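Hi P.,

Sorry for the delay on this. The queue was packed all week, but I finally got your sequence through. Input first:
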Amino acid sequence: MTGFLYCSDPLRPGRTDPAFAEEAAAVRGSGAAPGSGPAVALVDHDALVAGDAVAAVRRVPRGSGTYVYRGWMVTSARYAELDRALRARDCALFTRPEAYRTAHELPGWYGAFAGITPRSVWCEGPVGKLDRAGADFWAALARPLGRGPGIVKDFVKSRKHEWHEACYIPELADGERLAAVVGRFVELQGEFLAGGVVLRSFEAFVPEGEARIWWLDGEPVLVTAHPDTPGAPPPTAEELGPLLPAVREALSGLGCRFVATDLALREDGVRRVVEVGDGQVSGLPAGAHPGPLLAALAKA
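Then the structure:
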């Protein structure tokens, strides 16, 4: 069976991080007899983020097989280091580093999903370079999107909780306002800026109309509410029906086995893909039972 790799508790390294303890307990209890279910191992997320992948995996038994990582987000570079450190212990990750990067960062998945997600443009670069970019640079980047509102994010995340300050751009053709919002976003992201800057056309979505779907080998194995709105009922199969074939087709061109997609309901009644991510670092909403997802992964 495929095992599961969870983040350890920073204060009690021999235990699972409380954020993942319930899921890890479900894995451990999934066997017909104690100890017969998939293996569970722990990774030190702090050590991994600090660049010491060897120390991060010291609790993973040597030669213990292939693991699905279910933990906090890490950059594509740190994930590749985690992969190398596990291979040095004769273990492996279920998702290879190149597949993780493809699903985790917008430039990797956008081409496959371009017809069913808001239009986007992007530029790569470190904070220092992007900090120095002026209004003309951002206006030129935004030009293919045309007029209208937009949002700014990096290759992985936005700052939607600072909506007017560092996320929403009322008019992409307003170079000064565009530069101000992007500049503030880059400033606030700082060293945590992932990859570069993405500009997306803004589409108006229905509040609490978002759902998260986990896909394994091109098939949906779990549908839940979005973690930001755990109390909202997830859409039914009938409601998702028109979009699912398009998502399945997009995934077939992506080449990634385990992917999560966030779908939102636009105000005109059309469902759209608003985010794609590696399934390993996509969280479950409070109250969602992980059983179907874990069972599918254990057998994969």
